[in-house]
Amino acid sequence: MRLALILIAFFGSAVPALAAEGNVPNLTASPLSTLVLIALIVSYVFVIWGERQELKKSIPVLIGAGFIWAVVAYEYKVQHDESMTEVMKAGFDHSLIEIGELTFFLITAMTYVVTLQERNVFEVVRYKMLGAGLSQRAIFWATGLSAFLLSPFLDNLTTALALVSVVIAVGTATKDKGFVALAAINLVVAANAGGAFSPFGDITTLMVWQSEKVEFFEFFSIFLPSLVNWLVPAVIMSFAIKSSDAEVQNDPVRMKRGAPVMIALFALTLVMAVLFHVVLDLPPVIGMTTGLGLLMLYGYFLQHREHAEFEPPVLPQGIDIQVLEVLERDYKPRAKPFDAMISIKNLEWDTLLFFFGILMAVDGVAELGYLVEVSKYMYGELGATIANSFVGVLSAVVDNIPVMSAVLKMNPDMVHGQWMLVTLTAGVGGSLLSVGSAAGVALMGAAKMPNEAGRMVSVYTFMSHLKWTWAVALGYIASIYVHTLLHVMQ
Fold it and tell me: Mean of the pLDDT values across residues 383-395?
């Protein structure tokens, strides 16, 4: 993110103030407009600082977005032109509607994922993999392939976390930290690559789909480049894995009642999102929220059925009735009937609010004309292929959400193959570094093994990933090359 902001600030100030394209005026020459860039930079600095101080990352970007739009509104107002104010209002309304649709789409998808976790769906996947008696090399390939195939429907973070438990169990049994590190890198690359060829696989692909730059079925045309992006580093890293077997403790686990129905409802919800958009020309979000309603309706009947079967807890004799009332009111039982609202409550709301805030902030910057000037340099001087390839590299340092948001706001004039390329690179570029994607960041905290003293230590780290960045980069370059062979680029 830091590099992106520096680039925006540099190009925004280095290019002379020219007439902006479309309805957005160029107000970059105004001294007050530089406060917008400063606010964006300060907001993200506090996001980085807050990671160690346990400050929610949504707080600084929500405050920053409000400040940025206040400056934008003032800049438009001092133009003393009523039509200018209407342009600003129209821009704000468009941003709010667009980001609101994305947010509710994500709320529905994340609710289903949390629900499937609660119903032990992913635990069953783990149990079956560990019970297959595979070698370490086979587990490496099985978990990578599963991540590549699951992430088009689930987000890359959930996919990686669901499968890393298999890797850790095998690595702990064989005491092979190197295997866990390599398999974790493989999971990150596979999950990011799998999400790149599906409109549901990543927030950036969802943004591209909803902006109507790429149609639903056109995403699958980048399946082969995405596959190459994963296979190249996977093949290289597989030679460093010891093909040893291990006896892994694997306690039986079963899916809870209603899990198959919920999986079917999730599939139906995704189909409805596509049909509402393709057939009825409605935003995909209406199909998703309809599916959320179906989940809540099914949950209503499931909740009543499970509630009738739950036995009251056995309490010590002689317990005071007032104490019992306090326990029932203030303390949650270990097990309780399914409730869809609890799934919604357990969403990553900080992530959702961060997503909303950072996109609103980027839209505010765009409303002053900065991104138009950046677009003129990147896509005019460097050329679309180089610029779109650079977007992927940038997303390894920066969160890919604001990067893709900036590209969509720039709206450069380029052929369809280039829009497919930037969709690919923004999705897979984060694999170059462990901090380049949500999956990588999550696994740095989750991929832990006991050391000689019995303490849990991280075995997948920034440096362990950096050691193999060259292999991931070869996959990245190969995927771009394959894409250029399949699509018209000029």
Answer: 84
